[in-house]
Amino acid sequence: MSTVNEQPTALSEFETLLRSMTLDQLPDLLTIRELSIWARIPVNTLYEWRAKGVGPTPMKMGKHLRYSKERVRAWQRDLESRVA
Question: Hey, where are the domains in the chain?
């Protein structure tokens, strides 16, 4: 039986593939899980950021959230400009 604090032991092939991709190689629309895996940001954090109006801006497609690659790119540029 697994416990709440137990960490996964290995990444799935899907997660490994996503983490190895550059932003340009990603699909044009990402699910919240895909963005979470690629950016290494917990899904719950992305939901919190959405509620606070920070982070990349998702779009609603029916009842689903999708992140466009262009909005993620714009968010990255904004973060980079704050550091520079």
Answer: 13-83
pLDDT for the residue numbered 82: 86
Query: In angstroms, rounded to a whole number, what is the distance separating the alpha carbons of residues 79 and 55?
Result: 9
- Residue 66 to residue 83: CA distance in whole angstroms: 27
CA 71 to chain centre: 11
Band of residue 84 on the pLDDT scale cut at 50, 70, 90: low
Q: Which of 68, 79, 78 is nearest to 23 (CA)?
A: 68
* 29: Cα within 13 Å, side-chain hemisphere: 7
What CA–CA distance (Å, rounded) separates 47 from 83?
A: 24
Query: What class has domain 13-83?
Result: mainly alpha
